[in-house]
User: What shape does this take?
Amino acid sequence: MPNKLRFFLLIIIFVLIITMFLLWTSMDVLKNGLGLSSIVIFIATAILVIFAIYAIKKVHISLKRGDPLKDERTRKIEMRASAFSFYISIYWLLALGFSIDYFKLEIPPSSVPGLGILGMAIFFGFSYWFFSKKGE
Amino acid sequence: MKNRIKELRTKYDLTQEELARKVGVRRETILFLEAGKYNPSLNLAHNVAQILKTTIDELFYFQDNK
Assistant: This one.
């Protein structure tokens, strides 16, 4: 896939995801008022926006320099970060389920899978950053 | 694993960016290679060695831990 096409695809994906999260937040606020779940979703959206700006800026710089967007090192990092975030998100889901029961959190059941996936995405972002800085 | 990439790159008056472009990787990959923080694939090691007019075993070496 040409690099420019990949860049525009990345922007479109981020815009769609952020729009979805903003819709999710506003629907949650309208339905349940300003509660814990809407604050969590809002914080997650903010993290996502920061991550999107960082990723788009990085890709833009690479495109300007004429670098390939991916090479064997970044693919290796992606694989390690994916495996690590998947592993950690199992515990995240367990902790989420336990917290909802133990602290009697008022999170709508429909939001729980979304929070699970969101947690996995955040873990992926952090582990990608960590592995890319750490090296082998 | 240590390497002589930086030494040979400067000998042939190449920047990290130029070397990266010649072997088809990102500049950061060359940076990590030089710092010994990344173990390249055999393919990349071969390409880097070829650009720096040397062989893989002369370019990469293991330092004795003793």
